Structure formats: structure tokens, C-alpha cells
Amino acid sequence: MSLFEYAVLAGLFYGLYFALVGVGLNLIFGVMRIINLAHGDFLMLGAYGAFYIYHLLGWNPLWAIPIELVVFLGLGLPLYYLLVPRLQKSGDPEMLSFILFFGLSQVIEALAVFAFGNDQRSIPTSVFGGAPIHIAGQIYPSSWVVSAAVALIGIVLIYLYLYHTRAGRATRAIMTERSEAVVTGISVHRVSAVAFGIGIASAALAGIFSPFMFGAIEPSMGLGITVTSFVIIVIGSLGNPLGTVLGGILYGEALMLMQTFLTSWSEMFPYVLLILILLVKPSGLLGKAVRSA
Amino acid sequence: MPKTWRSTAVIVAITLLTFVFVPYIYNNQFLLFNMMMYMALALGLNIIYGYTGYLPFGYVGFFGAGAYGGALAITFLHWSPYLAVIVGGGAAVLVGMILIPLFRLSGAYFSIANLAAAEALYYIVANPHLESITQGPYGISLPQVYDPNGAYWTMLFILLFALVLSGFIRGSRFGLALAAIRENPLSASMSGVNVVKLRSISWLLSALVAGLAGATFGWYISVFYPETVFGLGIGVFTIVFVLFGGIGTVLGPIVGTLILYGAYNYIGISTPQYFQLVYGLIIVLLVLFLPNGLVSLAKRRGIDVP
Fold it and tell me: What are the residue boundaries of the structural domains of chain B, listed by start?
């Protein structure tokens, strides 16, 4: 029984972390209706940022949080104006975005190989204090608890931005009905650019903790993480940031239980889960119907 | 006879002559084989993406299903490789049938679900528990039927089949109905087009081409691993080639593959360390500046492209 309880609590930690991994991808899809297939690669860049801050400067990886938030927000804004408005003028932005951002992910990965090399890297898990944490009679690495806590804070901040600020209200207006938001006088591009920046910065934030949650980092880790993020946000429903938390926790729980009790099939599990959920409820667990024919 | 059918006959003749005679002056057979394979895949993908607008991001799943279907027929049934290629096509069609419910999804959801389906198939095939059937992660080996020339001519035949199929669809009422589905499924169904049936047929035809190509590829290289035939790169290459040439035409996928795959090989041989960077940059620039492909350059000047 204790193995089961262990898996459930571990699933909760991982679930909260996975929610942070997915939330940026979801925000960008919700606002711009484009699929950022380079999401995982921004996460990878964030991970290397933490790695070098720890190994070159000797600082605690937590210092990477403020630095990377500024850097990636600053990176996201020009990148938005460079790519997205042009893409949205094309015939089928939703489909073409797949291919465009796949290309971007290849560029990032190639540059990362030049800059960081192809080796796997990691950060010792002891940086957050060596002692494991006891919760409900079970023992967990302190890095899991820290990662889950930071993820929770990050998601709450995004929630507060969306639901308690003027810009956030404008963002939600664009999500609901883009054309009417334009008519109301919302400057769609400025609001979208900020959402794009937040989406990328949240990926980088999740990246800081990926050496602890995924074990090791390497330049080619991006695509797998992007697919995982898809699973998470589709479970919750595309475009709904709150659904992502639900999706992350469901995913984390299911993954931990599979790894504990059905190890050899656990790798294909996320994909099967994704297909099943799409077929049963195409718009995700919290979504509205989207299909027209 | 529609004009498209006549132009297709010309394209078929040129393609046939090219791949029959180029081996006499250029001896890298594997490159020519891959060129034909990607042309066939591009035409196959075009049947579903170009003609109906659904983008299967996991198109490689059919390719892998074909490779494994063919390999299993050779290993366990000891069939001739030619029959095994047909079995591979059948395996892909079977996977396509299983995936038909995905058409309940629209747009990005369909693409993502298809990607997930291809990955799920990969993990099933690569699962160590199925070693007695698929050899799991340890790969397939078919030395008993190794025959690169036989596989080369088979692939040429598949390419011509894909060409004839694409040309026929484009010039027929069936192709017109598919175009109507692409532009607006709702209006199409109100005008009496059986959306579900026609879309499923083009989906299965698309799967068939990829399965035949996959089985022939497995036969040609005769030693392969799950990640060789399920690598997402194969599907993405194909999508990029189709986009570069121009979707929804017969000539576009052929020309796109010829130019881009040729360029990729040039970079891959001369400066392999920059391959991924250049490959990615080409995709980005292509989508931003030429989203309708090379064909759109000709169409803009009033030239009709088959």
C-alpha cells in the first residue's frame, strides 16, 4: 500500500511541474492559435542557463529564475514580431505554424549543439539542501518539492496576470473572439507579444528544474518535451490555462502509477492517453466543442 | 480526357526515363533510391494534405507500419519480397483504418493526435516484451532477401503508381470533391459530397503509398531499427518537400523533393555539421516567404501547373 501512496504523492509533485511545462504552450495557442513546436527547445535553453549559472558562477540554480525571466521575456517580444504577424497573414496559420516552429526548433537545437556540445549534463540534486523531505510517512528528494512549489507559484502568477490585470483581460478577450477584440480597440499585436514572451519565459522557468525532474539535459531533449506538453494541455483542453493544471496533475499521477506498476509500457502511455482523450472528448476535459464538420 | 491527365502522362514518362537512365551516369544508387522514395512519400502525403487539407504530422507511422509489415511477412511467412511489399501496403492501410476516427478532430487536434499515434506505434514495435515478434529495440535483419536492384525497380514502380494516382485524382470528379472538402467541409456536404467517405478513401490511399514505400525501404536496406523507420524526421522531410513544391498539385511534390532533397544531400556531404541549422532555416524562410510553394510562382504568372 505504501508503494501506491508514494506514487500518488510523487505524481502530484510531478503533476504540478508538468503543469508549468505545458502552461506556456497553451497560452500561446490560446491567444495566437499557433502551435509552438519549439516549446521544448526553449525549455532546453532554460535548463542550460541554470546549468551554467551553477557550474560557471557557482550560484544556486534558483538565481537563474529572475535572470532567465528577464532574458526570455526580452527574447520573446522581438521573436513574436519577427515570426507571428507574417505567419498569420498566410492561408492556414494553424497548420503552417507546425512547420515553421519545427524549423525554429531545428535551428535552436543546432545552435545549442555548437554552443553547449552534445554531452548530457546535470546539476547535483543536493543544491537545495541535502536532506530529503518527509511527507505523510514517505521520503522525497527536496528538489522535487522545490520544483513543485516554484511551478505552483509560476502558475498562480500567470493566473493573476490573466484574471486580475487590464492586459490580462485583453489577453482573454483575444482568446475568446479575436476579431471582436480588434474592434474594441485592443492592440492585438502588443498583447499577443507579451503573451508570447510569457509563454517562452514559463518554458525557460520550467527548464531550470528539468535537470532535477528529468535527470539529465541535452540539446536534443526539446521535441520529446514538446510532445509531452501537448498531451498535458490537450487533456486539460487547448487554450484554457486552468485546464493545464488539471492536465498536468492527471498526467503526473498516471505516469507515476504506470512507472511504478507497468514499467515497460509507460513510454507509450502518454501518446495512448492523448489519443483516447481526444477521441472521447475532442476538445479536452474542460473544453468547448470546436468541430464543425 | 482532362488536361491534367495528359500532363500527368508526360510527367510519368519523364520520371520513368530519368530513373532508368541516370544510374548509368551517376552511381550512388542509395541516393537515387531515397530520392524516389521521398517523391513517392511526398505524392502520398499530398493526397491527404494537399487535396483535403488535413496535415498528418505522424505520416511516418504508415511508413514504419509498412516496413515492419513487409519484414514480418518475409521473416515468418517466408514470402517473396514483392509480396511482402504488398503486405506492407496492407499493414499501413490497416493502421489507416484504425485511425479513421481521428477525422472527428479538426485542424491542429488532428495533427497532434496523428503524431501521437505514430509515436504510440513506435513504442509498441520497440517494446522489449514483443521481442519474439518485432525483435523489439534490437531491429530487423533480412539478409535472405537482400537485393538492392530489385528494391530499386520496385520503388520506381511505386513512384509511378503514386504519380498516376495523384494525376487521376486531380483530374477527376473525386479530386474536385476533395478540393470542395478542403475549402469548406460544411458546404461540400450540403452540395451532396459524401465528406466522410471520400476523406476516408483519400486517407487510405495516402497510407497505402507510404506503406508500400516503407516496405520497399526496409527491403532495400535490409537491416533496420524501430527508430530508423519511425523517425519523425522522415515525415517532416516529406511535409517540407510538399510545401516547398506546392500543395495540391502533381508536379509540386516531385519538383520540391528534387530540389530540396538534392540540396540537403549536397549540404549533408559537403558540410554535415551545418546540416541541421540550414535545414531549420530553410523551413522557417519557406513558411514565411513562400507559404504556397514554388508552384505559386508559376501560378502568379498565369501558368497552369498540373
Answer: 3-230
